[in-house]
Design goal:
15 strands
Length: 243
Amino acid sequence: MPAALARYSEPGVPPIAAAVSNAVFVPTGHCKKCHAWYPFLDVRDGWFADVQRAATLDPMDDAITTAFTSLIGLPCWGVQRGHGSMLTFEFGPPYLRIREPYVSNSPAAWIRERAARRRIRPCGAWHLFIFCCHWRIAVSGEVLAEDESPVDQIEAAVHAVDGQKLTMFALDAVTCTTTFAFDLGASLTTWPYADEIDEPWSLYQPEGQVLAYRSDGCRSLGSADEDPDRHVWIPVDQDVRVP
């Protein structure tokens, strides 16, 4: 950890998160790459400069490398196609996730209907969510399905991946393309929609944090129970490969 942030750290809290939690949240700067406002205004004792400098010095892929190192060698299970072309993968020991009914103000009827029902389903300790991106599933080099393929073709593809162990994760920082490779020949490749800023994938972790990657090349790591708008987005400037 850079000395610049040592005095802002707290036990069990990432240094940048600890610093942000003590800041005054006022939009004061704009990130040209993330297209987001810096949510802090506290320049006492060089606070803002320290955070900017630490963000520059710290390896940007630490959170991604740490998260996916834990998944290497684990079989995915419960692989499903969600709404449209969404995909979900479970890793690790299962547990029951219970989501109570709530009132949704979404203009989409299907979202309001789902919100009004109690949902109970088995989930893994790690939950990988593929959403708002192009993707391709292949086995031994043969493409089985893509995000715009017919539903039955997608269903067959996710069935082929189900049960395979994750052996490699790779992220190309330039193209924002992510590749997930599995032990029995399957691979999942994701890449962004053109001219749209979305979150191609999110990884929910056992400790209650969610690691999200955005199509403009930034990632965030924060509590899954926290308002996502409060998450800090950090550019991933270097390729990531695990292992």
